[in-house]
Structures are given as structure tokens and as C-alpha cells.
Specification:
It contains 18 helices and 12 strands. It is of the alpha+beta class. It folds into 3 domains: about 140 residues, Acyl-CoA dehydrogenase/oxidase, N-terminal domain (Butyryl-Coa Dehydrogenase, subunit A, domain 1, Orthogonal Bundle), CATH 1.10.540.10; about 120 residues, Butyryl-CoA Dehydrogenase, subunit A, domain 2, CATH 2.40.110; about 160 residues. The strands form 3 sheets. Strands 4-5-12-7-6 form a 5-stranded mixed β-barrel. The radius of gyration is 25 Å and the shape is globular. The model has no long low-confidence stretch (mean pLDDT about 95). Bound molecules: flavin-adenine dinucleotide.
């Protein structure tokens, strides 16, 4: 088990020095909050994570849930944890005072998610899913549904889930076939099956509340015919919980994040599965997407959290493992040096640091946009909404994809020991592999970015983002060591803009297939430029902080580390856009023309 799994100093830096989140308290909605209250929340989260999550990290991996007699038995700690999450107000933290919450900004809520995820990702998803499901009822459900379900969910007594996926409807949710037949009562009768439902059943809690997509009988085909329902595992009848005809047909065995089960559910085998409509008929997917956008930031944050734990495990090891001698001295009579002295090991560490702290800062910034959108009006509201909407596919997929590479780099730092179960990085590598898959695969995020977000409102979101990026460029002082980076970054934006124009022109030329064929590569390109921006911003704040002559040695090292990592990102990561550029401006139809038979 790693001794350190995150850097509290970096959380402070991003929240208070870069984003200055205490200014949120200027808005009436957040007026009771301050730097002190935010820090208290984060400190309490860290204490809970240290005491109740981290100690079970390995055990939950080695003793995964068991499926027996139609039930999924999870680690006994989950029951206690959900009680702690409920009593501590962690599940309801973002909701309003009237709803029993703390009106905590998402930017702080997502930090809490980061802390819990870094300590033990499997154990962190139970409350995360419950918050998401309860918030859907809160935002779109009837008063009756709110009264019946939300308190139990916020208290951690009932589990919440998102039940979308079916065997034939994964990425393509328009193909959902689960049907809901209206009755003369206040409920529908549901029939169908769902697969891969996280925490979809477990004996840790009394009940499971599924927020489920289904098609009302005779509804139009496609996305416009999908509605959202509350489908409880057990429903209340005369004050008693009775079975609601939701059968757990099995549990899937996964490669990682084994402490949390994913269930195969069958509804309506006895024609008695009652479902309660949330909001209006046929609007289910749009409701679900509102929550999914928040969940996508959550997935990005979970990926960074696991990557962070792997990074600190590998850093600790690199500082303690003697092996080999410096490049400049091969004298075998000299003692070995710790591997952190080897430039290649430092490169692997810097790679992790650059990706993790860059992704973390982007996610914090996106979360802040969500908070600002909530409390702003008029043009500002639209601006934050558009920026968040545009950046969400990046904030989900870049950390997710890159965490697979960074956790792999963490393993590599440990050499042969990294491949062993005795060391933590191999678990982190397995645990994080889910992130490019769930909540919309990377391929789907690419299509979302290029096919929808770039073109929406006549490209207004992209214009706004480029404006924000240019503001950073203008703010680089003439004395800054980052001046050279400013020019490189300005050039990268120009290239991104040119590639975007090139690709969107293909729509006018009526070549939609060519336009979207390499959408994932466009997503990669956009992500790298975005993270370069985020790093430049961090570097400028660090440079300014270093002007203070009374800094402690630790602070000086921290800020110097930030500046060096800006240079690392610009030297090692940003140049990758050149190869992507080459590919994206080529109009050949290589992947389109490739015949399936050629792949045999
Ligand atoms: C551990 C785990 C937890 C999960 N938790 C939940 C949950 O709680 N609730 C829930 O509802 N679901 C959950 N899922 C399901 C998950 O969201 C889906 O697996 C995911 O959306 C992909 O769907 P699929 O598996 O059917 O793959 P497919 O959709 O078949 O995709 C296979 C591949 O084809 C690509 N592809 C598909 N369509 C296109 C396209 N149009 N264009 C380009 N490429 C395409 C994909 O990018 C992917 O690479 C979970 C899955 C796992 C493994």
C-alpha cells in the first residue's frame, strides 16, 4: 500500500492560487463558504480516506464481491462506509440547504472525489453513483418521488445506479429496448434487461434505486422515444420493502476495480416490475445527459486519482531503489545510486507528473465553470455553459486515456517488481483501464467533440475558448522565462484553428464520413493543446509566487517543479500535435477504404 497517494499542496495550489475559488463566496448562493470552510471539507475527506478507504485498497481487490443465490455480496466494509458517507453529508454535499445539503461547489466536491478515488477507487464509487442518481430525481422527479427516495439515498441507506446499457445498446443508446407499459395506476410495468450496471445489486444496503432508461410502449424509434424511470429493487408497500421483480441474473468478472460489482439485471420476469416516470415521457436521454456531463468530469477525476496514487508509489520506489551508476561514472567500486538519479527514470516520473497535474487542473477548472454557470446570468452564464460543454469530452477522455499510460509508466519505474502483485502499481493499472470505456468510450467522446461541440452555435464555444487561451498568452510578462512557451502556444492555437477549419469544411463539401473518421485523433490534438494552456497558466502563477523572497525551501521546490514541468510538457508532449496535424489535414480515406477482409 503506498504511503502517499496525493499531494495536498497541489490541491491548495490549484484551488486557491490558480483558480482562487474563495471568490465564489461573492455570489449569494455560496456566501457562507470561504477558504476555511473549503479546506475543512478537504481535510475531513482526507481523514476519512486515510482511515476508512486506503486500508481496504488491496483487500477489496483480492476479495472481490461474490454472486450467490441471486445476490451480490460485497466487502462488509461497504455497509459501514455508506453509513459514514451518509452521516458525514458526503452524498448530499452539493445539494441545497433546503434539501439537506451544504451547497458545496462542484469544484470542491470533485476534489473530495479525487481524494476518495486516490485512496480506494472501488470504495469511492458507491456514494458517487448514489449522488448522481439522487440528483436526477431531485432535478426532474415529482415531489412524491423526491420524498420517497432522496432522503434514503442521501443518508447512504439506499444505493443509486445509472442503468442505461443493454447487450445491444452500449454506445448506441438509441437502441435501448427495455419497454415500459403504462398502467392505470401511477406506475409503468417494465420488461427487459440491463448489463454492466455498477453497484447494480449488493447486500451492503437495504435497497437499490435504478435510474433506468426504457422505451414507453409505442414510443417513437431512436433517442426521441426514450424515457427515464425510477426502478427500485424493492418497492415500498404499506411501509414494507417488497421485491419489485428485478432479478440479478449474474455478476461480471472484471480486470480491475474489483471491489465494486457490475450486475446483469432482468426486469419483469413475473410482469411485476414497477417503474415510476421521471419528468416527461421521451425526454429521458436529455435528462440523463445532464447528469452524464457531471459524471464525465467525475470519471476524468477518478482516472487522475488512480494515476496520482500510482505516481506517488513509483516516486517513493524511485527514491529508495539503488540500481546502477550515473551516466558520467561507471566505476563499479562506487556505490549504486537510487534510480531517481537516472534521467530516463526522471522522464517517466515527469511524464506522470505532467499528465496528472495538468489533467487535475483542467478538471478543477471545468468544475469551477459548472459552479460559475450555476450562479451567473446572461452572457456570462452562456459563456461558462459553452466552455464547460466544449471541454467536457476532453476532461473525460484525456485523463482516462493518459492514466493508462501513466500507470504503466509507474509500473515501469519499478522494473520487474512493478509487475508483481506485491506492489501497488499493477492494481492501479488494472483499476484505471475502465475509464476510457465507461460514460462514453473515447471514440464516442471524439465524435461528440468534433461532430457536435465544435459546430454548435456556429462555433461559438471554440471562439470563447480560444479567447480565454489568448488572454493567458497576453498575460505572460516580458521578464518571464516562459516567454518562449507563449510563442509556441500561440502557434499551437493557430494550428488547432486551421485543422478545425479544414475539417469543418468537409461538412460543406458533404463528406461527413471523412470529417469524422479521425475524430479521436482530433480529440487527442485538442486535448494536448488544452493541457499546454493549463500548464502555461500554472507556470505563470508559480513564477509570480517565486518573486516572494521569503518562501520556504519546500515552497520554492514546489514552484520550481511546476515551472520545469511546463517546460517538460512543451518539449515532450506538445510536439506530438505535429504528427496529428499531418494526419488530420490529409483527406485520404484510409480507414474508410480499408476493407474488413484486409484486416484478417
Ligand atoms: C466496469 C464497467 C462498469 C460499467 N458501469 C455501467 C453503469 O453503471 N451503467 C451503465 O448503464 N453502463 C455501464 N457500463 C457500460 C459502459 O458504459 C459500456 O460498456 C460502454 O458505453 C460501451 O458500450 P459497449 O460495451 O456496448 O461497447 P460498444 O458500444 O459495442 O463499443 C465497442 C467499440 O466500438 C466503438 N464504437 C461503438 N460505436 C461507435 C461509433 N458509432 N463510432 C465509432 N466507434 C464506435 C467504441 O468506441 C468501442 O471502442 C459499464 C461497463 C463496464 C465495463
Amino acid at each position: 500500500m503506498p504511503r502517499q497517494y496525493l499531494n495536498p499542496r497541489n490541491i491548495q495550489f490549484i484551488l486557491h492560487e490558480v483558480l482562487e475559488i474563495s471568490s465564489l463566496s461573492n455570489f449569494a448562493y455560496y456566501q457562507d463558504h470561504s477558504k476555511e470552510t473549503f479546506d475543512m471539507v478537504l481535510e475531513a475527506a482526507k481523514q476519512l480516506a486515510d482511515k476508512h478507504l486506503l486500508p481496504y485498497l488491496t483487500e477489496m481487490d483480492r476479495k472481490p464481491p461474490q454472486y450467490e443465490n441471486g445476490e451480490i455480496h460485497v466487502h462488509p466494509k461497504i455497509k459501514e462506509l455508506m453509513k459514514l458517507y451518509g452521516e458525514g453529508g458526503w452524498i448530499s454535499a452539493s445539494s441545497t440547504y433546503e434539501e439537506g445539503g451544504q451547497q458545496l461547489p462542484l469544484v470542491v466536491g470533485n476534489m473530495v472525489g479525487f481524494i476518495f478515488g486516490a485512496a480506494n477507487y472501488s470504495a469511492s464509487i458507491f456514494p458517487f453513483l448514489t449522488t448522481g442518481a439522487a440528483n436526477l430525481i431531485r432535478n426532474f422527479g415529482s415531489e412524491e418521488l423526491k420524498k420517497q427516495y432522496i432522503p434514503k439515498m442521501y443518508e447512504g441507506q439506499w444505493q443509486g445506479t445509472m442503468a442505461l446499457t443493454e447487450p445491444q445498446a452500449g454506445s448506441s443508446l438509441s437502441d435501448v429496448q427495455t419497454t415500459a407499459t403504462p398502467t392505470e395506476k401511477d406506475y409503468y410495468l417494465v420488461k427487459g434487461q440491463k448489463v454492466f450496471i455498477s453497484a447494480g445489486d449488493h447486500t451492503g444496503l437495504d435497497n437499490v434505486v435504478h435510474l433506468m432508461l426504457a422505451r414507453i410502449k409505442d414510443a417513437p424509434a431512436g433517442v426521441k422515444g426514450i424515457s427515464l424511470f425510477v426502478v427500485p429493487k424493492k418497492r415500498l408497500e404499506n411501509g414494507q420493502l417488497v421485491s419489485n421483480d428485478v432479478t440479478t441474473a449474474g455478476m461480471f468478472h472484471k480486470m480491475g476495480y474489483k471491489g465494486a460489482p457490475i450486475a446483469h439485471l432482468i426486469m419483469g420476469e413475473k410482469e411485476e416490475c414497477r417503474a415510476y416516470l421521471v419528468g416527461e415521457p421521451h425526454k429521458g436521454l436529455s435528462y440523463m445527459f445532464q447528469m452524464m456531463n457531471e459524471a464525465r468530469l467525475g470519471v476524468g477525476m477518478s482516472a487522475v486519482s488512480i494515476a496520482s496514487a500510482a505516481y506517488y508509489a513509483s516516486l517513493e520506489y524511485a527514491n529508495e531503489r539503488p540500481q546502477g551508476r550515473p551516466l558520467s561514472s561507471k566505476n563499479p567500486a562506487l556505490p549504486q545510486v537510487n534510480i531517481i538519479e537516472h534521467p530516463d527514470v526522471r522522464r517517466m516520473l515527469l511524464f506522470q507528473k505532467a499528465v496528472i497535474e495538468g489533467s487535475f487542473a483542467l478538471l478543477a477548472q471545468c468544475s469551477l465553470y459548472a459552479d460559475l454557470e450555476r450562479v451567473s446570468e446572461g452572457e456570462d452564464k452562456e459563456k461558462y455553459f459553452l466552455l464547460l460543454d466544449l471541454l467536457t469530452p476532453i476532461a473525460k477522455s484525456y485523463p482516462s486515456e493518459m492514466s493508462v499510460l501513466t500507470t504503466s509508466a509507474a509500473i515501469q519505474c519499478l522494473g520487474g517488481y512493478g509487475y508483481l502483485e506485491d506492489y501497488a502499481p499493477e492494481q492501479f493499472f488494472r483499476d484505471t483501464r475502465i475509464h476510457p470505456i465507461h460514460e462514453g468510450t473515447t471514440g464516442i467522446q471524439g465524435l461528440d467533440l468534433l461532430g457536435r461541440k465544435i459546430t454548435m452555435h456556429n462555433g461559438k464555444a471554440l471562439t470563447l475558448l480560444i479567447d480565454e487561451m489568448r488572454k493567458t498568452i497576453v498575460s505572460v510578462p516580458h521578464w518571464s522565462d516562459l516567454r518562449i512557451r507563449k510563442h509556441e502556444f500561440a502557434e499551437a492555437i493557430q494550428h488547432l484553428h486551421a485543422v478545425t477549419i479544414h475539417l469543418t469544411d468537409l461538412i460543406k463539401e458533404n463528406k461527413p464520413e471523412v470529417f469524422l473518421a479521425d475524430a479521436t485523433l482530433y480529440l487527442d490534438y485538442f486535448s494536448i493543446v488544452t493541457i499546454a494552456w493549463i500548464w502555461l497558466t500554472q507556470g505563470l502563477v508559480a513564477e509570480k509566487a517565486l518573486l516572494n523572497t521569503e518562501l520556504s525551501e519546500d515552497d520554492k521546490n514546489f514552484y520550481q517543479g511546476k515551472i520545469l514541468t511546463v517546460h517538460y510538457f512543451f518539449e515532450y508532449e506538445l510536439p506530438k500535435i505535429q504528427a496529428l496535424h499531418h494526419r488530420l489535414v490529409s483527406n485520404d480515406r484510409l480507414t474508410i477504404n480499408m476493407k474488413s477482409e484486409y484486416l484478417n
